[in-house]
Design brief:
Layout: H1 30-36, H2 39-42, H3 46-62, H4 68-86, H5 99-111, H6 124-160, E1 165-170, E2 173-179, H7 180-205, E3 207-208, H8 224-230, E4 235-236, H9 240-245, H10 248-275, E5 282-283, H11 302-325, H12 340-360, E6 365-366, H13 368-375, H14 382-391, H15 396-413, H16 422-426, H17 436-440, H18 442-448, H19 457-474
Parallel strand pairs: 3-4
Antiparallel strand pairs: 1-2, 5-6
The chain binds arginine.
Residues 38, 42, 98, 124-125, 128, 332, 334, 336-337 line the site of arginine.
Length: 476
C-alpha cells in the first residue's frame, strides 16, 4: 500500500465517537475513521449547513422547544463559526467525520453546553439532504448566469454576421449554403433548452427535507413550513422517508449538466474543425490557445478540446449517481455520502466550461472569404436548381435526376454549376432560362429561405432579436 493511502497497520486507535459514544465499548478503528469520513470533501457545504442550522434553531425557539435566549446564543455562535471558516481560522477534523459534526462540535466548544441543544429534533440525515439542496440551488443559479452570458455572446455574434455565408453540412459533406449567424443561433437554441431544463430541475428540487429527522419525523412540535419558508423552499417535502433518501434531484441535475456538456462538446468539435488549416473558417484569439513545445508553427484550440474532453467526466458522474441509487432500500443509507464528489465535480466542470466559452465566444473572428469560398464548392446550390425546375413545372423527382446529371458533368469538367453556360444548362432541360443564375448564387440561395426558422439573413436578424428578448426577460 502506498505511503499516502490510509492503512490501519500498526496505527494508534483514535476516538471520535463523543457524539454517539454512549453505546460504544471501543474507539473507532483509525482506518475506519478516515474511510468513513467525508469532511475533506463536504466542508464546502459549510455555509449552507449553517444556514440550515440557523433556520432550525429559529424554528425550535418559535415552537418553544428552545428558549429564545438559547436560540440567540446558538445563532450567534454559528455565525461566528461561519466567519471563522471563511477567514480560514477553522481546524477541520477527520475525527469529527463530516461538516455537520465539525460545526456542531465547534459550536459547543465556542458557546458551551447550550450548543448541544441544536441537534434537537433533527438528524444528520435530514440535515445533509437540506444542505445539498441549498448548495445545488445556488450552484444552479451560478450556472444559469453563465449560460445567459454565453447565449448573449452567441446572439450578438450571430446578429453581427447574419449575412456571412458558409457551407451548411449534413454528414459533414457540403449540403446547402447557410449563414454563419444562422449556424450560431442553432447553438443558442440548444443552450436555451438547457436553461429551461435547469430551471425546471431547480424548481422540482426546491422543497425542504428538514424535519424528516432520521427517517420517521420527530416527536417535537416542529414547524416544517417555517423552516421551509426561512430557507426559501417552496414547501416542506411530503414524506419523511423519501426526504432523507431521495437523491433523484442530484441525478436530474447531473443529467442537465451532461446535456450542457454534450452540447458544448458538439460546439467544441466544430470550433476545432473550423480553426484547422483545412477549414480555416474562424480565428480564435491567442489568449484562448496554446502553442507546441516542439512545433513552432502550432496554435492549438486547447479550450474547445478540453471542454470536449470534459464531457466524459460529467457523463461519468451521471452514470455514477444513477448506479449509486440503484436498488437502495429506504431510507437513508451511508451510500448516499458518495453523492457529493460527483455532484460537486459536475457543478465545477460545467461552470468552468461555460465560463470559458462565455469569455471566448465574443472573441471568435469569422473568416468570411474562406467560408464563402468553401460554400461555393461542393455544389451547395444543387437543391436550388432542382427547386427552380419544380417552379418551371417539373416534378421534384425528375428535377432531382436532371440536376444530378448536371452535377456529374461539372465533376467531370471540374467546375461548379454556376460556371455552366445557359446553353450547357439547357442541354439538361429546355425549361431553364437566364433567370436561373439568380438561384445558383450563394446569396440568392440563402435569401430564398426566407421563412420562420430559415437561414435568410433577414430571418437571422429577426431570430437574434427574439432570442435577445428572451434573455432580457430572464433578468426581470
Ligand atoms: N456525511 C453523511 C452524508 O453525507 C451525513 C449523514 C450521515 N448520516 C448517518 N446516519 N451516518 O451522507
Amino acid at each position: 500500500m502506498s505511503a499516502d493511502k490510509p492503512s490501519n497497520n500498526g496505527e494508534q486507535k483514535t476516538t471520535r465517537n463523543s457524539l454517539w459514544g454512549g453505546r460504544f465499548q471501543e474507539p473507532t478503528d483509525a482506518f475506519v475513521e478516515r474511510f468513513t469520513a467525508s469532511v475533506n470533501f463536504d466542508q464546502r457545504l459549510y455555509r449552507h449547513d449553517i444556514q440550515g442550522s440557523i433556520a432550525h434553531a429559529t424554528m425550535l425557539s418559535a415552537v418553544g422547544v428552545l428558549k429564545a435566549s438559547e436560540a440567540e446564543q446558538i445563532i450567534a455562535g454559528l455565525e461566528a463559526i461561519s466567519d471563522d471558516i471563511t477567514a480560514g481560522n477553522f481546524d477541520w477534523s477527520v475525527a469529527r467525520e463530516d461538516v455537520h459534526m465539525n460545526i456542531e462540535a465547534a459550536l459547543t466548544e465556542k458557546i458551551g453546553s447550550v450548543g448541544k441543544k441544536l441537534h434537537t429534533g433533527r438528524s444528520r440525515n435530514d440535515q445533509v439532504a437540506t444542505d445539498i439542496r441549498l448548495y445545488l440551488r445556488d450552484a444552479i443559479d451560478a450556472i444559469l448566469q453563465q449560460l445567459s452570458r454565453l447565449q448573449t455572446g452567441l446572439i450578438d455574434l450571430a446578429d453581427q454576421h447574419a449575412e456571412v455565408i458558409m457551407p451548411g453540412f449534413t454528414h459533414l459533406q457540403t449540403a446547402q449554403p447557410v449563414t454563419f449567424g444562422h449556424h450560431l443561433l442553432a447553438w443558442n437554441e440548444m443552450l436555451a433548452r438547457d436553461y429551461t431544463r435547469l430551471l425546471d430541475c431547480q424548481e422540482r428540487m426546491n422543497q425542504s427535507p428538514l424535519g424528516a429527522a432520521a427517517l420517521a419525523g420527530t416527536s417535537y412540535p416542529i414547524d416544517r413550513a417555517l423552516t421551509a419558508a426561512a430557507l426559501g423552499f417552496s414547501q416542506p417535502t411530503e414524506n419523511s422517508l423519501d426526504s432523507v433518501s431521495d437523491r433523484d434531484f442530484a441525478i436530474e441535475f447531473a443529467s442537465c449538466a451532461s446535456m450542457i456538456m454534450m452540447h458544448l462538446s458538439r460546439f467544441s468539435e466544430e470550433l476545432v474543425l473550423w480553426t484547422s488549416s483545412q477549414f480555416d473558417f474562424i480565428d480564435l484569439p491567442d489568449r484562448f490557445c496554446t502553442g507546441s513545445s516542439i512545433m513552432p508553427q502550432k496554435k492549438n484550440p486547447d479550450v474547445p478540446e478540453l471542454v470536449r474532453g470534459k464531457m466524459g467526466r460529467v457523463q461519468g458522474h451521471l452514470v455514477n449517481l444513477l448506479t449509486l441509487m440503484k436498488s437502495q432500500p429506504l431510507a437513508y443509507n451511508k451510500d448516499n455520502q458518495e453523492d457529493k464528489e460527483p455532484l460537486f465535480d459536475s457543478i465545477d466542470t460545467v461552470l468552468d466550461c461555460l465560463t470559458a466559452y462565455a469569455d471566448m465566444v465574443p472573441a471568435i473572428t469569422p473568416k468570411a472569404d474562406n467560408m464563402r469560398a468553401a460554400a461555393g464548392q461542393g455544389f451547395s446550390t444543387a437543391t436550388d436548381l432542382a427547386d427552380y425546375l419544380v417552379r418551371q413545372g417539373v416534378a421534384f423527382r425528375d428535377s432531382h435526376e436532371i440536376v444530378g446529371n448536371a452535377v456529374a458533368q461539372c465533376i467531370a469538367q471540374q467546375c461548379d454549376l454556376s460556371d455552366l453556360s445557359l446553353a450547357d444548362l439547357q442541354a439538361f432541360s429546355p425549361l431553364i432560362n437566364d433567370d436561373v443564375f439568380a438561384v445558383l448564387t450563394l446569396e440568392g440561395s440563402v435569401a430564398s429561405r426566407d421563412h420562420f426558422g430559415g437561414t435568410a439573413p433577414s430571418q437571422v436578424k429577426q431570430a437574434a432579436a427574439r432570442a435577445k428578448q428572451l434573455i432580457a426577460a430572464r433578468q426581470q
